[in-house]
Design brief:
mainly alpha, Hydrophobic Seed Protein, 6 helices, about 0% strand, globular
């Protein structure tokens, strides 16, 4: 019984790691907060890279996290444009 429980936990952990949302971490967008809050501030290279890296997660962020309204605001749209990253179509 103990071996079966360990096997089940290992299987669930593996499936969770393969889940696309597991790679989605809103904290990775931290370099983009200043340009969104203070629009004249241009986005940094690390912000633009974070937008590219987290691109597949943007619809998840918009629908399920506290940063969703910020991404959808005009400054959020401007940030994507300034980084030459396509705005997500969810």
């Amino acid at each position: 019984m103990k071996l079966t429980a360990i096997g089940l936990v290992a299987m669930v952990t593996t499936v969770m790691q393969l889940s696309p949302t597991m790679a989605c971490d809103v904290i990775d967008l931290q370099p983009c907060l200043l340009p969104i809050i203070n629009p004249p501030e241009p986005p940094t290279a690390s912000c633009c890279q974070a937008l590219r890296d987290q691109g597949p997660c943007m619809c998840y962020f918009i629908k399920n996290t506290w940063i969703g309204p910020t991404i959808q605001a005009p400054n959020g749209h401007k940030l994507f444009a300034d980084c030459n990253v396509p705005y997500p179509s969810c």
